Amino acid sequence: MRVPASCLAALALLAAASAQIDRPAEPPARDKSPFVFSILPRGIQKNPHVDFNIITEMTDEGRQAAKPTAAAPVYYITKPAGFLQLGHGAPAGEKPPEVERMERVLERALSASGYRGADKDHPPSLVIIYSWGSHSNPLVDDDPENNTVPNKVLVDELIERARLVGGEKFARELVQAMATQGAAQRAMPKPRVDPNGAVDTHFNVRGDAAGAMTQIFSPVEAFRQRSAKHRGLMEDVGSSVYFVIASAYDFQSVAEEKRLLLWRTKMTVNSRGVAMTETLPALIASAGPYFGQDMGEVQVVTQRISREGTVEIGTPEVVGFGDDVVPGSRPAGESRQP
Fold this sequence. Notes:
- By secondary structure, the chain is α/β, with parallel strands linked by helices.
- It has one domain.
- Helix content is about 35%, strand content about 20%.
- Strands 3-2-4-5-6-1-7 form a seven-stranded mixed β-sheet, with helices on both faces.
- It is globular, with a radius of gyration of 22 Å.
- The termini are close together.
């Protein structure tokens, strides 16, 4: 299987950055076959399959709040926070979908989880603030040897993408793996130099061998190989992604300028070979069943997007947050297209 250059570059960055980390830190319808192959790059496929990563993280206050039902919906108002370009690799001239279209798709998706727009007869109990944009990795398209962004900045941005793609728990575990690997690298034997400046070659060879083994059996690589889902998520963390973030706040707290967060849904898709205008509406639609749900881990939903016309993909049914597959999907991570 071909490993994307962006993934290799990201793994190389992780290996170099791990040595700098001293301790863990809080990071800023099913197909018949589980494998789908295409000889065409995704950018020129007519209707490519795309993997959407979706996770809702809930606060303690959110767990105590009333849950919407068909008989008792929860009413909300929305507030768009705008288009964001994050990361040093952000390309110029990105064209996001119109705000009106984002609002329309978001309203339809929220209805799948029992949320309704407020009106004069139904005052809001939630304010849902949402933003959208891209988070880019300069190593994807640039030559890593000529990259001028400091390693620390790249690592901070990589962890920020991990928080977007896999959620807070996923990002914390990645930081822990990087810290463990860094400690192992610092403990490796160093070449000895005699008073005349000559290096002990035999000792140096042992050090190089230890370094090679550390990379092959590294905690970061073990984290990546934990499951097919993890391999796919790590590919996205090392690439550039499009994202949508919807944050639900208690309405009264916002009115009092306190902003009590109840839940936050993060939606991402690898940007390789697709446009923001064709993927973000489908991404939001696919997240419909997950808004306001207390999810233990990220869900990967695979959809076929259409590049003809403006038909928007419908909202899928939810099966269970522990599953790697939902209707219309394949096992996460193994279906990714070049």
